[in-house]
Amino acid sequence: MSRFECVPNFSEGRDAERVERIASAAREVVGVTVLDVERNADHHRSVISLVGEGDALLEAVVRMMRVATREIDLTQHKGEHPRLGATDVVPFVPLGASTMAEAVRLAERLGERVAKELGIPVYLYGAAARRPERADLAKVREGQFEGIRDTIATDPNRVPDFGEPRVHPTAGAVAIGARPVLIAYNAYLTTPEVAVAKRIAKAVRARDGGLPEVKALGFEIAERHRAQVSMNLTDYRVTPIHRALEAVRREAGRYGVGVEESEIVGLVPEDALFDAAEYYLQLHSFDRAAVLERKVRAVDASGPGHESIAGFAGRLAARTPTPGGGSAAAVAGALAASLGEMVLAYSVDPAKPATDLAELGRALADGRRRFLELADEDAHSYDGVRAARRARKERPEDAARSAAVGAALEHAASVPLETAQRAVDLADRLGAVAERTKAALRSDLTTSLSLFRAAKEGALANVAVNLDDLALSGRPIERFQSEIARLRARD
After folding, report:
1. Burial of 399 by CB count in 10 Å (0-12 exposed, 13-18 middle, 19+ buried)?
2. What element of type H or E holds 89?
3. Which of 35, 116, 318, 322 has its CA at a distance of 20 to 30 angstroms from the CA of residue 205?
4. Does 131 fall in a domain?
5. Are residues 223 and 369 in the same domain?
6. Do 423 and 317 belong to one domain?
7. Domain check: are 239 and 312 in the same one?
C-alpha cells in the first residue's frame, strides 16, 4: 500500500474558524487522517498535514482547496509570507515503501483536477517540475499573486502546467509538487530589525552560498516585536537543525544580536530531534534503540494487531464484524515471517555471514512488522466502508458521499491485496534458499511457507469479496482481477 504525507499551505492564518472549515473538509474523507494544523497570524498562513493513500488523499485535498477557493480572497490578503494562491502550495511526500515517482504522479493528477474543477492555474514544482527552473518553489512564486496575475497571459515563462494562462480572480494560482520530508524551522532574533534577519537569511541559505539544502527569508513579526529568520530545511540529513541554528547564531553575533528562541512549524521526524540532542549533549556513541519509547513501541509491535495472541484470538472469535479474515490472513503472514527469521538466524554463520541470507532476514523482519500493521488496517478499512455507507444512506443524493463509498471499498480491497503480495514475495525468496538452511529446522521452514500460502489465499479471498460492490460503485476492478490471477498462479 502506498501512503503519502501531504502538507498543503493556505493563505489564511488569522481566522481560526475558517482554517478549521478547511481542515474539516479533509476529515470527512475515509482513509485520510489530519495529523496537524499550524496557524500563524503574522505570516497569515496555515500549514495542514495529512496522511493517506493516493485516491483518498487527492479527494481530501480537492475538498480543502474548494473551501479555500470559496473563502479566501487574495486581493484582500496581506501577510509576511510570500504567496501566489489561496491554496499556495501542495507538496506530496512519499512515506515507507512509496516512491517519489508515485508522489509525482499524484501531483500531476491533482493538478489536472484543480485546473478543471476549480479553474485555478497550476505550476508543478520540486520533483514534479516539468521545467528545470520550476524545481525551486521560490522561482515559481516569484512576483507573488500580483506579479503572476499581471504577467501570466503575456510572459511565456509564466505559462502554467495545467489550466488557462489567467489566475483565478480571488484564489490566484497554486504550486503542486513532490518532495522529500521538509522541516520548517524559524529562529527569532533579539531584535525587531528585519534588515538584520534578511542579511542573516542571505548568509545561511544555499542559493547565496550558505548551507546546502537550506532556504531562508527574513521577516518582521510585529506581534512579537521581533525579527525572524524563517528556514526550510529541504534535507535534514544534509543540513540538520542544530547546524542551521548554529549558523544563524554565528551570523547574528556579527550584528550584536542573538537568538531568543526557535520553533518548528508542522511535523518533524524524530531522528532530526535526536540529531540535535546528540550534538548538544555530546552523545558520541548514543544508541537510539535505548530510548524508552522506542523500546516500548518495539514490544507493543511484537504481537498481532499490537496485542497478545490470546487477546487477538478472542476478538476474532467474537460476534463482531472486525477483526475478520483479512486481519487473520495478515497475522498468518506475520507468523510466517517470524518463523522464517528464526530459521535464517540459525542458518547464517556469524563468522562468515552470507550477504543474501542476511538481507533476506532483514526483509522478513520488515515484513513481520508490516503484516502486523496490515492486520490493524484491514479492520479499520472495513469500519471505513461501513461509515461511508451510513453517510450515503443519510444523504443518497450527495454524489460526494457515493464517491466516498467507492474510495472506501477500494481501500478495503487494497489492504488484503498488499498482504497477499508480500506473502508471495517473501515465500518465494525463502523457498529459494531452503537448501541452504539447517536440516534440523526444515519443519519450521515448512510451517513458515505453509503460513505464507494461507496468508495469500485468505487475503485474496478478502480482495475478491469486495470486487462486486466496487464495480457497482463505478470503480475499475481490472487491476485487482489481474493481480489476483497473477498471485494465484504463483504456487
Report:
1. exposed
2. strand 87-95
3. 35
4. yes
5. no
6. yes
7. no
> Which one is predicted more confidently, 131 or 298?
131
Confirm if 213 and 234 have CB atoms less than 8 A apart.
yes
Q: Note whether 475 and 333 are same-domain residues.
A: yes
Place of cell 469486495: 466
**CATH number for 54:** 3.30.990.10
pTM exceeding 0.70:
no
Choosing from 122, 145, 178, the residue where a domain stops is: 178
What CATH number is associated with residue 470? 1.20.120.680
For the chain, give the mean pLDDT: 90
pLDDT confidence tier of residue 304, bands split at 50, 70 and 90 = very low
β 32-40/259-265 pair status? unpaired
Q: Position 66: which residue type?
A: R
Angle between helices 399-432 and 478-488 (to 10 degrees): 20
Is residue 183 assigned to a domain? no
Q: Which three cell numbers stand for residue 166?
A: 489567467
CA distances 243 to 163, 199, 220, 272, Å, are 41, 18, 23, 11
DSSP conformation class of 207: G
C-alpha cell at 310: 490470546
φ/ψ (deg, to 5) at 266 = 85, -155
The DSSP H or E segment spanning 61 is helix 54-71
Q: Quick one: DSSP state of residue 85?
A: B
Backbone angles phi, psi at 408, to 5 degrees: -65, -40
Options 43, 44, 77, 81, the catalytic residue: 81
Quickly list DSSP for 125-188.
EETT-SSGGGGSHHHHTTTHHHHHHHHTTT-GGG--SBS-SS-BTTTB-EEEEE-S--EEEEEE
Query: Does residue 234 share a domain with residue 91?
Result: no
In the chain, the number of structural domains is: 3
Residue 147: inside a domain, yes or no? yes
Domain boundary among 178, 212, 240: 178
C-alpha cell at 7: 502538507
Cβ neighbours of residue 110 under 8 Å, at least 6 residues apart?
Answer: 58, 61, 62, 90, 92, 176
Same domain, residue pair 105 and 25: yes
SS3 223: helix
- H/E stretch holding 39: strand 32-40
Q: Tell me: the pLDDT tens digits for 126-138?
A: 999 999 999 999 8
Per-residue pLDDT reduced to its tens digit, 213-258 = 999 999 999 889 999 999 999 889 899 999 999 999 999 999 999 9
> 205 and 63 in one domain?
no
306: pLDDT strictly greater than 70: no
* Residue 81 is among the residues annotated as catalytic for this protein: yes
Q: How confident is the model at residue 293 (pLDDT cuts 50, 70, 90)?
A: confident
Distance between CA atoms of residues 378 and 322, nearest Å:
9
Please report the sign of the dihedral spanned by the C-alpha atoms of residue 185, residue 191, residue 194, residue 195. Answer: negative
